[in-house]
Amino acid sequence: MTIRDLADILGAKVLVGADRMDQPVISACCSDLMSDVLAFVTEKTVLLTGLTNMHVIRTAEILDLKCIIFARGKMPGEDVLQGAEELHLVVMMAPHTMFTCAGMLYEGGLRGAAMDWKLSSHGADA
Fold it and tell me: Residue 25: which of 36, 10, 33, 71 has the closest Cα?
């Protein structure tokens, strides 16, 4: 799947990186906690978030992500867009909740980032 496919599925508006839409993605992660993103995300993963500050850009830089989708129609500030452009990221804004975005992308064939969850005997995270 390409970033262009994601935009089409979500009806997303491209804010930065319209010339980089043919890059492949293999999974997605939804989070507003960048520490979780840092712990679980791998390359060729798209990040869906509602967090619109520079922490998202720095996280994308560390993980070498190629695409960020801001959910709930959130518009990041000019500093975030400029930082994304400097890192050659594609940034989009989707008019849906993260849950709905995730469902739409899953239905379109994109899967979540692979994670090794361990459950305790009571069913809670270990």
Answer: 10
Write out the E strands in the chain.
13-16, 27-30, 45-49, 67-70, 90-93, 111-112
122 pLDDT band (50/70/90 cuts)? low
- Rounded to two decimals, the pTM is 0.86
Taking the C-alpha atoms of residue 61 and residue 19, their distance in angstroms, rounded to an integer, is: 19
Q: What is the pLDDT of residues 2-38, one digit of tens each?
A: 999 999 999 999 999 999 999 999 989 888 888 878 8
> Which pLDDT score, from 0 to 100, does residue 36 have?
77
Q: How far apart are CA 78 and CA 64, in angstroms?
A: 21
Q: How far apart are the first and last CA of the chain?
A: 33
> Dmax over Cα atoms in the chain, in whole Å?
49
**Domains, in order of start, for the chain:** 3-112 (3.40.1390.20)
